[in-house]
Write a structure and sequence with these properties.
Layout: E1 3-5, E2 13-14, E3 19-26, E4 31-38, E5 43-47, H1 53-63, E6 66-71, H2 77-80, H3 83-90, E7 94-97, E8 111-114, E9 119-122, E10 125-131, E11 140-144, E12 147-151, E13 154-155, E14 158-159, H4 169-179, E15 188-191, E16 201-202, H5 203-209, H6 218-226
Parallel strand pairs: 5-6, 6-7, 7-8, 12-15
Antiparallel strand pairs: 1-3, 2-3, 3-4, 4-5, 9-10, 10-11, 11-12, 13-14, 15-16
Helix pairs in contact: 4-6
The structure holds fe (ii) ion.
Fe (ii) ion is lined by residues 74, 76, 135, 152.
Length: 228
């Protein structure tokens, strides 16, 4: 399994929020998995536990953190195919959107439903949940101050597919233009796949380079995304 750390440790220490961020590219379709830690309490959460839980577990140990939970950006298999192994190792709560398709919900103990504007925590650090459907009904982003973990909603210079079961391109337009693009331009985007030229970027820069964020209205977006 090819698992690699993008950047280096220092680069991902976000001093302003005291949130420790590790970004890993793992698996055959360039998934990004994140370990987010509170340096004060040494608690750590994993966003989208997939592909190589042994490696991620070793990483948490190497960094001196204890894994205390998992956040699911949505329930597509490439984002949670390590979930059973994770909960068998750690017995931690797993947070999923209450709107995810029933057929996609993983059959595990400790699954906790969350919804828009709920607050989660990583140690003593507060995390806001943003419900951002479109790619799937239960897509959600996680916001820690100005750092936004976008799953398959927003990529660097791309956005999630809207032609899958449960997808809704009009809902995607609303999520992008009326929720995510309303965040400050300084917001840093951490996507769910490494599909762009760089692993993360600011919202302000993405508004200039991401073709899915440069549409003048929903009709233009539907043409760009769906070819309609
Ligand atoms: Fe997905």
């Amino acid at each position: 399994m090819d698992s690699r750390l993008i950047g280096n440790d220092k680069w991902y220490i976000a001093m302003a929020t005291k949130l420790y961020i590790q970004q890993y590219e793992i698996g055959p379709i360039n998934n990004f998995v994140y370990l987010l830690g509170d340096p004060q309490t040494k608690e750590m959460v994993i966003i989208d536990p997939a592909w190589d839980i042994d490696f991620l577990s070793q990483e948490a140990k190497r960094l001196g953190y204890k894994i205390t939970g998992a956040f699911l950006s949505h329930a597509h298999p490439d984002h949670l195919n390590g979930l059973h192994k994770l909960v068998s190792l750690y017995h931690v709560p797993v947070y999923i959107s209450k709107y995810e398709l029933p057929i996609m919900r993983p059959a595990i103990k400790g699954l906790i439903d969350v919804k828009d504007k709920d607050k989660l925590s990583i140690g003593q650090i507060s995390v806001d949940v943003l419900h951002t459907p479109g790619h799937s009904p239960g897509c959600q982003c996680f916001l820690v101050k100005n750092q936004l973990f976008t799953g398959d909603v927003l990529f660097i210079d791309g956005c999630g597919r809207c032609d899958l079961p449960g997808s809704d391109p009009k809902a995607m337009y609303n999520s992008l233009y009326n929720i995510l693009m309303k965040l400050p331009d300084e917001t840093i985007i951490y996507p769910g796949h490494h599909y762009g030229p760089i692993p993360s970027d600011t919202m302000g820069h993405q508004k200039k380079t991401n073709p899915y964020l440069c549409c003048h209205n929903m009709k233009e977006f539907l043409v760009e995304r769906m070819g309609l």
